[in-house]
Amino acid sequence: MGEGSSDGRAVYSRPGGRGGEGAFESSGGPLWQALAPLLVGFALLVALVIGLGYLSADKVRETRFSTQQEERALAARLNLLLNLNLALNKLNTEARIRGRLEAAGVMLPPTDLRLRNERDAVRALLPDFDKLPVGGPPERKADIRRRLDEFVAMTGDLRRYSLEGFSAHQGVEKDLDALFDEIDAERDALDERRDAAIERARGEILLLMWLGALTGLVVATATTLEVWRRFRQMRRGYEALRRERQFSAQMLGGLPSAVAALDREDRIRSANTAFFEVFPAAGLGVSIHDKFTTPDGLALLAAATSSHVTRTTYRGRWSMVGEDGGAPRSFDIYSSPLEIEGEPGQLLTLVDVTEAAEAEVELRRQEALAAVGQAAAQVAHEIKNPLGSIRLGVAMLRDMTDNREAITTIDLVERGIEHLSKLTLDVTQFSRRRQLNLAEADLNALMDESLDLVADNLRVKQTEVERRYAADSPRGTWDEDQLRQVFVNLLANAVDASPAGAPVTVTTEAAQVASGARRNGGGGKSVAGARVRIADRGPGMDERTRARIFEPFFTTKKKGTGLGLAIAKQIVEQHGGSILVESAPGEGTRFTIELPLNPA
């Protein structure tokens, strides 16, 4: 806040008195002579801090990446061995079950699809196993592979498996346990090397810090002495200038946002440019109780000046819609005491916290989602193993009975098992975000494939699909499988929500979409992208349902898991895009997905 604003509107003015700029310069020389050593010292300190920051960052980066490749390789080996061990256990379980049923005299089909599938799953992992490095003599890996092949082949001969299968499986497990131990030993050695590198980097950073502190102390001392010497020459002129600028100094003592000085009668005596941007119809001498802004703005000002204060007071956070009818803006309101012409007034400060408030809401949502995801993933993990045992037991019960009522009960139990299995899969996917497998994809073709996957739903509901595709299909670098999952979920929801015979509209088009930084309130810009709209003519949603539609475990379906849309939002945001929903009771629902063509 100074003598005037850039648009020509005076925000502070009082008659000239004694002192002034001339008084400031006359006793100590030009201002730049006093500020020069301060600026030089400040520049040196900034350069020192930046240099130390870059050196420290380089040390940390060097330490971080020194063992990253080895960690990834160990993780890949461990993941392959875990998958192989799991496949072997499944194969052994299926072979043992079939052997027991055959020994019990149960009539079995000549082929067993489950046993064959588990055998194929093990064989599919063996080529990757051949690429793994194995410690010890070269023939050790060949021996392990031979025992794996023998065990897999043995499961095809149940008579031989009943005689040798247990010992063969134990031998294979022993081999895999030895490989797990090797990986653990390599990981321990890697941790030791990383810890040593971290300690070395820490020592070097501490040394740099102390050298920087010593250099900074020398620079600061020299700068302080020089500045003090020059300012002693200007003290008398500075005192005269301080008295003349006291009112402006009090205004600047508030927050650097929208600031206004109000007198005892609540009239605006002075304000900065930011205040007039928030209240463009306000003016000097106008009472804040006059109707120069929206009702929200008048309520904000009335609450902020409801009482005179004796110290800086926080008046709370208020939201108001601007006169242009745009999105609401949030302000933190502060009131400070101010003396105007010998009478008490107050300094009103409005800090625009719109982006901060939105960020806080998003942060709380993300923290809640993270907590829910972790807890749900743990529960799903605990459910997964006993669920498999239950499924196996129910399958055995089905094979052991011909009673129709018992089979009906078993069907009911299996439907419950399938629902729990789908829930655990959804929870696992939601809590463990998959990496994107990016490749060039055609959006129209991807939508056609998604529609093919819901063809049965469309046929049952006699739902027509209105395709409004872009003539030149947008092509981008996306994960086709995960986006197909998003589209199938939205299409299935649209079909379920639509009455029989009502059409579902699918639209694709090229568009300029907001980058991730721009959506989050940063300085991002629009980028080339694609837009997809899926609309139904169902009953629609009220505002409360629409606000919670992407929350995990929130569903309006009787048999839904409440994770489909949460996973869809997660996948779209992982691509750097956004998903929005528009709906009202009786007006149907429309989902809009925006995707950049090349996710960052």
- Mean pLDDT figure: 75
Distance between the termini: 41 Å
Measured as a percent range, the helix fraction is 55-70%
Strand order of the largest sheet: 2-1-5-4-3
Annotation, overall tally of beta strands: 12
Strand content: 5-15%
How many structural units, i.e. domains? 4
Query: Which parts are unreliable, with pLDDT below 50 for 5 consecutive residues or more?
Result: 1-29, 517-523
Secondary structure tally, helices: 17
Largest sheet features: 5 strands, antiparallel
- Using the CA coordinates, give the radius of gyration: 36 Å
Q: Return the string of H and E elements.
A: HHHHHHHEEHHEEEHHEHHEEHEHEHHEE
- Coarse morphology: flat
